[in-house]
UniProtKB/TrEMBL annotation:
PANTHER family: MEMBRANE PROTEIN RV1733C-RELATED. It comes from the Bacteria. The chain crosses the membrane at residues 31-52, 73-91, 141-174. It comes from Amycolatopsis thermoflava. Keywords: Membrane, Transmembrane, Transmembrane helix. The lineage of its organism: Bacteria, Bacillati, Actinomycetota, Actinomycetes, Pseudonocardiales. This is Transmembrane protein. InterPro entries: MT1774/Rv1733c-like.
Length: 196
């Protein structure tokens, strides 16, 4: 009769708490290192949360500033944009001269980025800053949260990667020690047999 397969908690317990007559001291130290690495990875989660909170506060403030300073207006394209290039990037953008009206009623002209193939006379929305210059759209609250979550996740993954590499390096070093110990014991055993 085949024994029932062990559950993952039992296998994990055997991994971090090795026992038996063939277990060497370095096997126990390696298991302890694995436990410490797991605990440090878990402890890094709240630190990543603090990082997310700080980045979100800064990005939210930046979003509020941009939303207060930037205005969307309609620009009229004054020249034909170049045509799409076959085999080029999926999103092709070019700069062309355009004319737009500021919130105070004055007109301003300058280069704006438009999709390739835009015709002269096309009206399109652009964002301008307080000085009336074209700028990217303001950062949204969702974008601020996305940036903060991304930074926090990358920070936590960086900690996990460093811990994984440390455990792997120790494991490889201990594999060499174990192999050398086994070689010495086999040599001793073979000398004992030949000496009879």
């Amino acid at each position: 009769m085949t024994p029932a397969p062990e559950s993952w908690p039992v296998r994990f317990w055997r991994l971090i708490h090795p026992g038996g007559p063939l277990v060497r001291p370095w096997d126990r130290w390696e298991a302890r290192l694995l436990v410490v690495a797991i605990l440090l990875a878990v402890a890094a989660v709240p630190l990543a949360g603090v990082l997310v909170s700080g980045v979100y506060a800064r990005q939210s403030e930046l979003a509020r500033e941009q939303q207060a300073d930037r205005t969307q207006v309609t620009a009229v394209v004054l020249a034909n944009a170049g045509a799409f290039v076959a085999g080029g990037p999926a999103v092709q953008v070019t700069e062309v001269p355009a004319l737009w009206r500021l919130p105070d009623g004055t007109e301003r002209s300058g280069p704006v980025s438009v999709p390739a193939g835009t015709d002269q006379g096309t009206r399109l929305p652009i964002w301008i800053d307080g000085a009336g210059e074209p700028v990217p759209p303001p950062l949204s609250a969702f974008s601020a949260l996305s940036i903060a979550l991304g930074v926090g996740l990358l920070g936590w993954l960086g900690v996990v990667l460093v811990l994984t590499l440390a455990v792997l390096a120790v494991h490889l070093a201990l594999d060499r020690v174990r192999a050398a110990a086994w070689a010495r014991e086999w040599e001793t055993l073979s000398q004992g047999r030949s000496g009879r």
